[in-house]
TrEMBL record:
This is G-protein coupled receptors family 1 profile domain-containing protein. Keywords: G-protein coupled receptor, Membrane, Receptor, Transducer, Transmembrane, Transmembrane helix. GO terms for molecular function: G protein-coupled receptor activity. Its main location: membrane. Pfam families: 7tm_1 (PF00001). Residues 21-109, 112-230 form the G-protein coupled receptors family 1 profile domain. GO terms for cellular component: membrane. It is found in: Membrane. It is a multi-pass membrane protein.
Amino acid sequence: EQGETFIGVYLLVLGWLSWFGNSLVMFVLYRQRASLQSTDFLTLNLAISDASISIFGYSRGILEIFNIFNDDGYLINWIWTCQVDGFFTLLFGLASINTLTVISVTRYIKGCHPNKANYSTIHKSYIISILIFCFFIPVMIMLFSYVSIINTVKSTNAMSADGFLSTRQRKVERDVTRISIVICTAFITAWSPYAVVSMWSAWGFHVPSTTSIITRLFAKSASFYNPLIYFGMSSKFRKDVSVLVPCTR
């Protein structure tokens, strides 16, 4: 009991100090918004992600230990679950790590290569870092995963010839593979033009405003087509939707 109370007090004090300190940073940067430099926006992003960790990462532990709302555990067992807490902590933690990585690159340029430490170089390093960690690496992981799926399906087809898999199992494997390939292809198709234009612009080449706008709008479509892919290619998903929305039958 005393140990839990100590942990609760620790989380409460640390969370409040973290929230207050990072909120102060955000307020100061907001007051100076007219004169912010490119690196200041990285500091702002770090403050936002750290403040979010102090809110989402500590709240559940505090609520569970002190039972502030006297709700017999309903809030932490059904709403603010461990999965929700872990998701937000991981999300904002990754944001902080990647922001710190970009900050370290800009500090390296300014400290070790001061002659190159201008806005153009820092902007270029920022764009390249974002493209590497938020586009190229995820795309490589997706390609590796889906190629592995294809190879696995081929091997299971060979096994099915010996009677290990039924016809229905083979159909399920084929459907999963097709959906995976289409989703991966759609993501790369939507984001690749924007990635190329961003890289092109970062290296100092002129990009027409119309091209820039079109690639941005095309990239935003990535949030739209996945449900259409599920509905169009997955009979199970269509069946589940028809139960909820009878007019789709």
